[in-house]
Automatic annotation (TrEMBL):
Name of this protein: Class I SAM-dependent methyltransferase
Keyword Ribonucleoprotein applies: no
GO process terms (BP): methylation
Pfam families: Methyltransf_11
Keywords: Methyltransferase, Transferase
Matching Gene3D superfamilies: Vaccinia Virus protein VP39
Source organism per UniProt: Micromonospora maritima
Length: 257
């Protein structure tokens, strides 16, 4: 079993976009009428030269209204499969690269976005140094991360599929919402934190099964039956399978140099 954040990311994302797509799909059951991408987009600096690092499938740019002019977008990811999808984003320049070694000159971007990607890195400080380096003075960094209790109810299903490491291996690993502000403040100033208010209310078992399969691979009949029993019991008792979310947007600014 892989043990480092980067090794897990390679096993999950290097050759497929399906795992990430399955996880995004589960969040369609959020109870906040403003979905995550709309909420995030309303808070991003969307003008000038904008870089998203670890852009995944580019879903943000399919959900957020981009200005008709004044935005020059660059998208990066380590995964060849993700970069194929990113090239479908109209008008974007796409580069496959390592977040800790960005192939750009100093002070060339007005904004850098890192949406749910820092926890996939073995050395997040190397990436933060790079983010600060490529930002222009006054440029903004936007980092989205999860807290340690994010999706806690899904974690409880791990033993049902024989994987007690589900939480530790995916959304509680590496950099978290609790410790990231201090880490970011070591590289940039004016650090602020805003929490996205939401929880999931999943009305059926299938989306939960798809989520778990994206994490651990195809489930056996016995594993699927165990998950169905647990999730159905919660739906019958509460009207939905409710899952807490803990997601924050951390913003920071590069000062003059």
């Amino acid at each position: 079993m892989t043990t480092t954040p980067s090794a897990r990311a390679v096993s999950q994302y290097a050759t497929t976009t399906g795992n990430l797509s399955a996880r995004i799909a589960l969040h369609a059951y959020g109870t906040n009428p403003q979905d995550w991408f709309s909420w995030l987009g309303a808070r991003l600096p969307l003008a000038g030269d904008v870089l998203e690092v670890g852009a995944g499938t580019g879903e943000l740019w399919r959900r957020v209204d981009r200005p008709a002019s004044g935005l020059r977008l660059t998208l990066t990811d380590f995964s060849p499969a993700m970069c194929v999808r990113l090239r479908e984003v109209p008008g974007a320049r796409v580069q496959r690269c390592d977040a800790g070694r960005l192939p750009y000159a100093d002070a060339v971007f007005d904004a850098v976005i890192a949406n749910h990607m820092l926890y996939h890195l073995d050395d997040p400080d190397a990436a933060l140094r790079e983010f600060a380096r490529v930002l222009r003075p006054g440029g903004r960094l936007a980092v989205a991360l999860n807290g340690r209790d994010h999706l806690a109810e899904l974690d409880t299903l791990g033993p049902a599929v024989g994987r007690t490491d589900v939480a530790a291996g995916f959304h509680q690993d590496g950099t978290t919402a609790e410790e990231a502000p201090a880490r970011i403040a070591a590289h940039l100033g004016d650090v602020t934190v805003e929490r996205y208010p939401d929880e999931l209310a999943v009305p059926a078992v299938e989306p939960v099964l798809a989520y778990l399969a994206s994490m651990v691979g195809p489930l056996t009949a016995a594993q699927e039956s165990a998950v169905r029993d647990q999730v159905r019991a919660r739906i019958e008792a509460e009207g939905a399978f409710r899952v807490r979310k803990h997601t924050v947007l951390i913003s920071a600014t590069r000062g003059p140099r």
